[in-house]
Fold:
Amino acid sequence: MRGFVPFLGQRLFRALIALWLVSTVVFVVMRLSGDPVPLLLPPDAPTSEILRVRRELGLDKPLPVQYLIFLSNLAHGDFGRSIHFREPALDVVRGYLAATVELGLTAFVLAAVVAVPIGLFSAMRRNTLVDHAAMGLALVGQSAPTFFLGILFILLLSLKADLFPTSGRGDWHNLVLPALTLGAFTMASIARLTRSAVLEVLRADYIRTARAKGVAEVWVVAKHTLKNAAIPIVTITGLQFGTLLGGAVVTETVFSWPGIGRLAVQSIYNRDYAVVQCTVFLAALMFVVINFMVDLVYGVLDPRVRAG
Amino acid sequence: MEMTRRDLLKGAAALGAAAAVPLTAGSPALAQTTQKKELVTAQSGDVSKFDPHFSTSSNDVRVSFNIFDNLVSRHPDGKLYPSLATEWKLEGQTTWRFKLLQGVKFHNGDPFTSADAKYSIERTYDPGAKTMVATVLATIERVEAPDPSTLVITTKKPDPLLPARLAFYGGQIIPKKYVESVGNDAFNAKPVGTGPVRFTSWVKDDRAVLDASPDYWGGKIDMDRWIMRPIPETAPRIAALLKGEVDAITQLPPDQEDRVAANAATRVAGALYAGLYVLAVNSKRPPLDNPLVKQALSLAIDREAIVKELWRGRGIVPNGPIAKGDNHFDTSLPPLAYNPSEAKERLKKAGYKGEEVFIETTVAYVAQDKAMAEAIAAMWKDVGVNVKVEVIEYSVRAQKNREKSFKGVFWSDPTSTLSDPDGMMWRLLGPGGPQDYWREAKFDELGNAARFSVDEKFRGQAYKEMTKIFLEHLPWLPVIQPYEDYGIQKYVEFTPNPNQQFEIRRFNFKFRRA
Amino acid sequence: MASSIPASAPAEVVLVPAPARVKTRRRRSARLVWLGAGFVAALLVIAAAAPILAPLDPIRQSLRGRLAAPTWNGTDGHAHLLGTDHLGRDVLSRVIWGSRVSLLIGFAAVLVGGVLGSAAGIAAGFSRGRADAIIMTLADAQLAFPFILLAIGIIAVLGPSFPTLVVVIGLSGWVSYARILRSQVLVLRSREFVESIHALGGSLLRVILRHVLPNVLSTIVVVATLELARAIVLEATLSFLGLGIQPPTPSWGGMVQEGREYLDSAWWISTCPGLVLMITSIVVSRTGDWLRDLLDPTLRGE
Structure:
C-alpha cells in the first residue's frame, strides 16, 4: 500500500486542478459571449437603466476583478444569481437536477441490467443468429448519433406504434424512450465488453473441468467472467458517466426532458452566466468524484496502477 | 401545375391516414361532450414571469391575463368592456373618471380598492420598478384615488385611447399591500390577483397549476383547475392533443392543421392576429437606406404564395402598416403587390451594385420565421439581390434589438395593442420607439398630432398620409397578417382572442357537457 | 462517442487473443478494412461529384411542391426519389450535397485534432516535467467536461463558421493522440540509444521523426479513423442544435432538425439524412475496429 497514498494524493490534486480549469474556461467563454443586460430590460430602457443593472450584477468591474470575485464565491458555494429566473443559480440547478439524475441513473441501470445478460448469451451462443443480431444492435448503439436515435425512437415507438409518449417528464412511460436513447452507447459498450470477457473465460481450461464435473455452465462462466471483467467494466463505468452527462444534453433536448442538460443549453442561449457556471461546475464535480472513486477501486484491484 | 387547396388537403389527409396515430378505445377525446373539471393546455414555451408588468411575451400573457384583471377588458369581438371599472367618463379634455367595482377581493382576501389601481398604474412607469411596460401608460400625467371606488386619471394631452391602453398589458391590477410587503421577487414567485384563477404551483419546464377562484366576481369559471404545460416541440404538442392528453394547444402551425381537423375529436380555432408579421428594416445600413431598394425588396416578395403554401391560406396579405381590424384600416388600399420585373427595374434605378442584404432570422420566435426567411431569400435572389440568411438566437436578437445593431432586416410581430395605429405603427416606429431606424419629419408631425387628437376624422386623414409615406420608405416590409390558431378538443367551447389573450372567463369559455 | 482509449487505464493490453486465431482474424480484418475504406472512398467521390450526381439544385425551392412524398413525378415535373422538404427542396440532392459538409469538416477536424494532439503528446513525453503535468492535467480537465457544452458555448459566442467548427470539433479529440504519442515517447526515452543521441548533440526532432512516428503510425491511423466517425457525428449534432453550417447549405444534422416538426407526416425529411449519417458512422467506426484488429491488437482494451 506504500504507493497508494501518494497515488491518491496525486489524483486528488489533478481533480482539483481539473475543476478549477473547467470553471475558468466557463467564466471566460461566458464573459466573451456578450452582455446579458439587454435581455433583461425592455427595448426602450434608457442607458442609465442599463448601467444601473450592470452595476447591480457586478458586470461593470474589470474582468480580472470579476474573475477573482467569481473564484472566491465559488469557494463559498455561491454561484451567483440567475438572471433569467431571478433566484440563486444553485437553487435553479437543484430544481432541474433530480430530472437528470432520474434519467441518468435509469439509463445506466437499464444499460447494465440489459447489456450484461445479452453479452453473456451472445458469447455462449457464439456466431448464431442471436449473437449476430445482438452484436449488430450493439454496433448501432455505439456508433449511431444520439440525437438521431432519439428521433428514430420517437418516430417508430411513439408516433407510429403509439407505445410511449413523445416527450416530457411524467410517469414511467415518459422515462423509457429517453433512457433507452441516453443509455444506448453504454448498453452497447457493456454488451460488447461482457461478450469478449465471457469468450475469454469460455476458452479457459476450468470451463472444461466444470463441464466434466457437470456444474451448470452459466454459473461458472458468470463467476469467472466477473472476476476477469471487473477491471475493464469498472473503468468503463467511470467513463460512461462522462458520456452520459454529455449525452444528456442532447437527449434532454430531443425529448424536452426538464433536466440540467437542457437547462445548460438554454442558459447559454440566454447568457445566464450564473446558471451555466453552476451546471457545468456541478457536472464536472460529479464526474471528477466518480472518476476518483473509479481510480480508487482500480487502485485496489490492480496494484500495477499505483506505480504510475 | 397548380395545386389547389383541395388537392393539398386530399394529399395531406392521405398522408395523415397512412401515418395515423390510433386513438386508444374509450379515450375521452372521442366524446364530443365531457364531464371534465380540469383544463389542461399546452403552449410552446414556459411562463417566464408571473408578474404581469415584467413580460409581454404571449406565453406569459396567456396566463397573466387570467390571474389578474384589468380595469377595462377587450373581448374577442374586439370591443372594450367594463371589467374592474364599471364605467368611465371623459371630463374635459384630459381627465377620465373611472367608477370601480365594489366587493372584489384579491386571492389573498385583501379588498380591491382604488388604491390598488393607482399603485398598479403608477408602478408601470415608476423608474424604480423597472417594468417591461414602462411606455404603455406614458400618456398619463397623474392618478388620483379620491375614494375607494373612484379613480381619476389625468393625461398629459388629450388621449382618446386611454381606456384601450388600460385594457392591455401594463393595465393589470396588482395588490398594493401584498406587493409592498413581500417585494417583487416574492410576488413573482407567488402572484396574487383578482382574476378567475389563482396561482397554486409552478414546476419550471413542467407545469403551472392554477386553481379556479370560487367567488370570482365574474362568476366561477367552468372548471376547478387549469394546468398549463409547456411543450416547446411542435410534434409532441400536437400528439398530446390528438391523444387527448391536453384539451387545447396554442401556436398550431398551418402545416399541422389538417391533422387536427381530420381527427374526429379535435378542431382548429383561430383568430386573425391583431398585428402583422413584418421584416423590420435597419434603414441606417446601406443599401437599405435607399427607399427604391426597399420598394424593390417588397415587390419581389410573393406574399400570395407564402400565404397559400406556407400558411395553407391561414392569413391575409397586408396592404400597409395598419392591421385589418384596427381603427382606420384603409379598405381601399390594395394588398402589397408582387411584381418581380418591376422590382428589378427599381433595383437598377437605385443603382444597386450587389451589396449584401442580410436577413437575420430567429427560429420559432415568430411562427415560421426561418422557413419564410429562406423562402423570401430565394425570391430576392431571383431578382438579383445578394441576400444572406443568418440564423440568430432569441437572446442575440434581444441584444441587437436593444443596441439597434441589426445588419439588415429582421422579424418582428408588432401587436396592435390598442386596435389603433397609434398602438402599433406609431408606438414602434415613432421617434425613440424600439424600431426607430428611420425618420421623416412629416411622418413624425402627423403621428404626434394623431395621438393627441380626439377628432377621428382628422386622425383617419393623418394615418392615411402616414401610410403613404410608409409605403414609400418602407421601414417595415409587411409580409403577412396570419391567423393564430389553436388546436382544441371539440368539447371545448371557446373563441380565440386576436390579441393573444387566452380568455377563460365564463363569457368566453366552457366545456360542452352532456 | 466512439472513443476507444479509456482515460484512466494504462495503454497496456487487458485481453490478448490466442495466436492460432490471429491469422484468420487478420485476413478477415484485412478484407473488411478494404470494404470500409471503399465505402469512405465512395462517399468522397459522391461528395466531390455532388454537382453532377445530384438530380436537382439543393437550395432550389418550390413552395407549391413542398412536403411531397417520394415520387417519380412531382408537381414540378421532376422526380423526387426521397421526397421534398418543407420548402419544396429535393431531399436526395440535399443529402448528396450534405456529404460535402460532413466529410470536409470531419477530415479537417481530425487533421487539426491529430496534429495538435500529437504535438502535445510529444511535448509532454519529452519534457517529463512541468509541461507534461500541465498537458496531462489539461487532458483530464477536458475529459471532466461535457465537451458538447463547451462546444455550444464557444460556437454561440463566435458564431458558426467553417473554421470555428473545424477547430472546436478538432479540439474535442486531441486527448487520444496525446496519450498515445506520450507513452510512445516515454517508451522510447527508456531506450538507451535515444539518450546517447541526445548526449551527442543530435537533434531531438530527428529522433522523433525517425523513431517515434513510424512506431505510432499504425496506432494513429486506427485512432484517426475512429475519431473521424466521432467528428462526423459531432458536427451533425451541432448542426442539429442549430450551431453548425447555416442554411440554406444542406447538412445532414441540420436536415434532421428541419424535419423534426414533420416527423409524423413527412418523415422522410429527417429519416433519410439521419440514416445516411448513421450508416456512415457505423461503417467508419467499424473500419476503425477492423484496422485495429489488423494493425495493433494491443489496443483492444475496451
About this structure: DSSP finds 15 helices and 20 strands in chain B. Confidence is low (pLDDT under 50) at residues 1-30 of chain B. The radius of gyration of chain B is 24 Å.
